[in-house]
Amino acid sequence: MKNTLLAFVLLLSFNSFAQLASISGHISTETKEPLPGASITLEGTVRGVQTNAKGQYILKGLKPGQYTIKVSFVGYKTQLQEISIKEGDQLVANFTLSDVTELQGVSVTAQSGVKGNTFLPQVNEYTITAGKKNEVILLDNLQANLAMNNSRQIFSRTPGISVWESDGSGIQLGVASRGLSPNRSWEFNVRMDGYDITPDPMGYPEAYYTPPMEVVDRIEIIRGASSLQYGPQFGGLMNFVLRKPDLSTKLVVESQNTTGNNGLFSSFNYVGGTAGRLSYTTYYQKRVGNGWRQNSYFNTDHSHAELSYAISNKLKVGGQMTYMYTQSQQAGGLTDTEFALNAQQSKRARNWFSNPWFIYALTADYVINADSKLSLKYFGTSAERSSIGFTKPITEVDPKGNRQVDRDYYQTNGTELRYLVNYQIGSWKNTMATGLRYFSGEIKRKQLGVGSNGSGMDFDIQGLYTRDLVFQNTNYAAFAETILRPSDRILVTLGARLEQIETHMTGQSGLSTTGSPIAVTPSSRGRSFVLLGAGTEYKLSANTKLYSNIAQAYRPVLASDLLPPATTDVIDPNLSDAKGFNFDLGYRGEVGNYLTFDVDYFYLNYDNRVGTISRTNTEGKIYQYRTNLGHSVSKGAEAYIEFSPTTGWLRGSKIGNISVFASIAAIQARYLDFKTTSVVSGQIVEGNLAGKRVENAPEKINRYGITYSKKGLTLSWQISDIGQAFADASNTISANAAATTGLIPAYQVQDISGSYKFKKYAQLKFGVNNLTDTRYFTRRSGGYPGPGILPADGRTWYVGLNVKFVN
Questions:
Q1: Dihedrals φ, ψ of 213, to 5°?
Q2: DSSP state of 563
Q3: In this structure, are 96 and 244 located in the same domain?
Q4: Pairing mode, strands 278-289 and 297-310
Q5: Which of 232, 352, 583, 616 is most buried by a 10 A CB count?
């Protein structure tokens, strides 16, 4: 049935093209070189294509009328041309684009490997980004181990990003910025193509799903100021934009196959293209390996399909489906002594983890006119998180008895309507973005089930779960933000967001001595609040600007805060919401195509912050206690500079192209006044966190690199220099017996990677991660899959072959 429907749509579209008009042509530079990948759009419509490898394009199926053709390409001046189309016309429109920048009368053109990161425009589709600290990570420009989603390399040029390197399989992403927790990126609003992919951003925002980086076109990051348009998260937005169907060809077939040590094999296969009004793409990735440590193994399957169809010149509809299935053996934690003796060892041979993930989205884009447009997204998630293993402190020997089973089930659905309009007040040419959002999420958490006494991945249990809780969350939101442009050099942004959150928890908190369920007292909570923000930009030159922004943020108490973890942590029953604000002041821009820079000062105010603190019980044992730790402030400076001396000083040099980058962050994250108590030798001892460093917040996050490219060969070297951190808010230096608290030492790690293109359709990729085989760790875990130190991977290597065919 599906195949018949698709054939019918294609037949209709092809028949209609025969009766309608088309525009074709060639896009080139002033030196007569073709520009592949240039964008050709008809303003005020949803129609657009890209040029092929020869700089050619064609737009089919056009109705008679007046159109404005817009031709654009990064680094070149955009061109507009009015055109009149009659029925059946086969028009030809060629364009020659000139460079945006000139240096002393000499044109400057981009060379390979110059720019790994760039910035978002003032308005990015339906979002206002002017005045905000933002980055765009261009995956095609990175030399990185994309087959394994190596976060250290992917975020190398993004200053201030801390990374938890405790999952060498590349399945889960743990990143943060500015002193926030990297715990599965939960301080970011994590999205894919603009819609949510976490279990529940307002109830359980942990990122258990990460798309394969081989299919990601770019990663868009807007720091905390994105709270006005994407939700109240302190960290901001992280949006994975997948490769879209190739608009210049009917068919693209690509296969990337990678192998490496520890049994690594990854196969990524992609098909996409455009046939008239219909665009399509699909991919499948299989990744399997034994992992660097003992008792580690992963086996993942990713699949994705996307269709979009331009029903008319004004309306385009589409749909996406993504599915991931994982099997992952977890090596567990280590004590400090065990880590020092052999970081590859494991004392947990029976711990397994799986998180099948299904995401879907339906989209519609409607262009009202050249100055206004609408976007509607309906999206949802059906997913699980399942674990089985021996979860006692690492100091206890696994007796090989029945293992503990814990399972989460997630069901979510949401809708976002966005409207963007350009409007004028006098001579001011302004832009406004508004939106409405509805989101509903349900989390079923089943814990402390009695599993099998075997060693494989088996989530069946005997009897009932000890805990069986349901957390429901409903979120309504409305936002509006505008750009006011008093002149061509200065702009001001003003915005507000209204949030309403309703939560409800029911279920079973335990079992009686007779095995009967003990019901939890149902609890409900509702709150409404308004977030405000403002920003500004001032152009110092055509390509450099000063920017500043201040925006309020809010973090509601999450399901992960209220529902206790399955192992050693203890939860404060009186947790309350956190609130605060983000402030940025920076200077960014580009000089020619040889220098990109962004330097900024930030201030993050986080009140009533939720975190962990070490406490001592009446038995003298230290445990982790999750509570409101009071007020914290993160402030510091971030800088990203990428420079190509060969492009800037030796244009046309035969030695090839060299570019260097530095990504530097100095962060001071401190707690203010907050009283604490603990029991020592039976006596209550009072303390205060004032002046203590925020946990998991290195004061130094520096990364440097150099890239050399000539013809088809590109080589990169990178070093990460990360400062020490603490695992808890008490800043415990000496580790406890279970290694859940203590110092996280500073470390340096190096990576080399490269690629070689040949035969026009093939590319060889290779690299060595952790070149010097450094032993280090970034995380002390208090729960699964620890507890204890979770070592980062030692030296690993990979080599892959990418083959691409275009029709």
A1: -65, -15
A2: S
A3: no
A4: antiparallel
A5: 232
| pLDDT for position 1 | 46
Cα gap 628→529, rounded to integer Å:
20
Share of the chain above pLDDT 90, in %: 62
What does DSSP say about strands 216-222 and 762-769: parallel, antiparallel, or unpaired?
Answer: unpaired
**Of the candidates 444, 378, 445, 383, which has an alpha carbon nearest to the alpha carbon of residue 413?**
378
Alpha-carbon dihedral sign for residues 51, 57, 58, 62: positive
- 297 close to 330: Cβ distance less than 8 angstroms: no
In a domain, 144, yes or no: no
Average the pLDDT over 445-471 and give the result: 94
> Phi first, then psi: what are they for 36, rounded to 5°?
-70, 140
Whether the predicted pLDDT of 683 surpasses 80: no
Q: Tens of pLDDT along 101-148?
A: 433 332 333 333 346 788 999 998 899 999 999 999 989 888 889 989
Residue 8 pLDDT: 42
Cβ-proximal residues to 71 (8 Å cutoff; 6+ apart), any chain? 27, 38, 39, 40, 78, 79, 80, 81, 95, 97
Instruction: Note whether residue 110 is domain-resident.
Output: no
Residues 573-611: b if buried by 16+ CB within 10 A, e if exposed = eebebbbbbbbbbbbbbbbbbbbbbbebebebbbbbbbb
The pLDDT value recorded for residue 105 is 30
Last residue of one domain, picked from the residues 45, 72, 100: 100
Residue 592 lies in a domain: yes
- Report whether 124 contacts 748 (CB < 8 A): no
pLDDT, tens digit, 9 for 90 and up, residues 700-744: 999 999 999 988 899 999 999 999 999 988 899 999 999 999 999
Q: Is 530 helix (H, G, I), strand (E, B) or coil?
A: strand
CA 473/CA 559 separation, integer angstroms = 9
> Count of alpha carbons within 13 Å of 125, Cβ hemisphere only?
12
CATH of the domain at 56: 2.60.40.1120
| Residue span of the structural domain in which 42 resides | 1-100
* Lowest-pLDDT choice from 33-37, 61-65, 475-479, 604-608: 33-37
From 100, 115, 142, the end of a domain falls on: 100
Alpha-carbon distance of 619 to 640, in angstroms, equals 50
Beta bridge partners of 530: 498
Q: Does residue 666 surpass a pLDDT of 70? A: yes
Distance CA 765, CA 757 (A): 9
- Which among 561, 171, 553 is positioned nearest to 329, based on CA atoms? 171
> What percent of the chain stands above pLDDT 70?
91
Q: Evaluate if residue 18 carries a pLDDT over 60.
A: no
Q: Which residues contact 257 (CB under 8 A, 6 or more apart)?
A: 265, 266, 267, 268, 800, 801
CA distance 766 to 264: 13
Q: What is the pLDDT of residues 525-564, one digit of tens each?
A: 888 999 999 999 999 998 899 999 999 999 888 776 766 5
DSSP one-letter string for 461-479: -BS--SEEEEEEEEEEEEE
* Cis bond before residue 787 (omega within 30° of 0): yes
Query: 170 in a domain, yes or no?
Result: no
Question: Is 746 in contact with 724 (CB distance < 8 Å)?
Answer: yes
Res. 11: pLDDT tops 60: no
At which residue do the structure tokens 């580790």 appear? Answer: 735
Structural domain count of the chain: 2
Does residue 95 sit in the same domain as residue 243? Answer: no
CATH of the domain at 515: 2.40.170.20
Helix, coil or strand: residue 155:
coil
Residue 167 one-letter amino acid:
D
In contact, 184 and 208? CB cutoff 8 Å: yes
